[in-house]
Amino acid sequence: MSAVPADPEIVRRYLLGEATEAEAESIERSYLGREETLEAVLAAEEDLIEDYLDGRLEPGRRQRFERHFLASPPHRRRVAIARALRGRAIPRRRLTAVLPLAAIAAAIAIAVVGRWLLRPRPAPGRVATIHLPALLVRGEGETPTARIGEGVTDVELLLEAGDWRAAPPLHVTLSTVEGVEVWRGAAAVSPSGAEGGPRPALSVTIPAARLSADDYVAVLSTAGAGGRVLQRYYFRVLRP
Fold it and tell me: I need a surface site. Which of 20, 21, 86, 187 has the fewest CB within 10 A?
């Protein structure tokens, strides 16, 4: 498990929201599983709070402290307690004793979970679907075309049933028309076909990153090393 960075400045940057993503993840993974790391982070928090109350933070970091550190209710309570203890002339290291370690650990764990839940997530990708007729010869009719634009992560091929008869499992091997294989995988039974068109029997979903702008042939076959070729499907991929 990653240890907390030795440089206290990295910990301070983390507390102020200035650490990099890698630094933040290293600290969080460490102090959620190691008590000594948690204590080191708590000590860094106390130092930061004291510097804030003493006016030793530079203007930029003072703003970060107020906007980031004090955005957490547990942190605001710690600052309030530290300020109150100052009025009673109680030594600063009594702050950790006033707030039990388990309670502080729970507050930090809640903050970490919230940070993970609120981190930006990639938008869901789009699927480009293309219906492939069961043709016997390439060039018979218009070539089906898949246009892969921005945001498309997968291409679904819906394969029209031919005259063949075979039981699952069935496999599809995808190659360029020049014979370069780019993908292979199992074919699934498609629940429905195109509205107003022939009903496809099978479907496969291929990562869009595997498909450059080119002409392709999808070979449907029975499973196994000596699989029997059932049907060939031809299509074209266009990219912006």
Answer: 21
- Residue 78 contacts residue 99 (beta carbons within 8 Å): yes
Domains of the chain: 8-118 (no CATH), 126-238 (2.60.40)
For 102, the enclosing helix (H) or strand (E) is helix 101-118
pLDDT tens across 56-105, in order?
A: 999 989 998 998 888 888 788 888 888 887 766 555 444 444 445 545 55
How does residue 176 score in pLDDT terms, banded at 50, 70 and 90? very high
DSSP 8-class letter at 195: T
Quick: pLDDT tens for 131-170.
888 765 555 557 899 999 888 999 999 988 777 777 778 8
Tell me the sheet residues that pair with 160: 200
Distance CA 86, CA 182 (A): 69
Task: Check: CB of residue 21 under 8 Å from CB of residue 39.
Answer: no
What does pTM read for this prediction? Answer: 0.46
Numbers of helices and strands, H then E, in the chain: 7, 8
CA distance 97 to 13: 25
CB atoms within 10 A of CB 117: 8
C-alpha distances in angstroms, 202 versus 164, 199, 209? 13, 9, 22
**Exposed/middle/buried for 137, CB within 10 Å: 0-12, 13-18, 19+?**
exposed
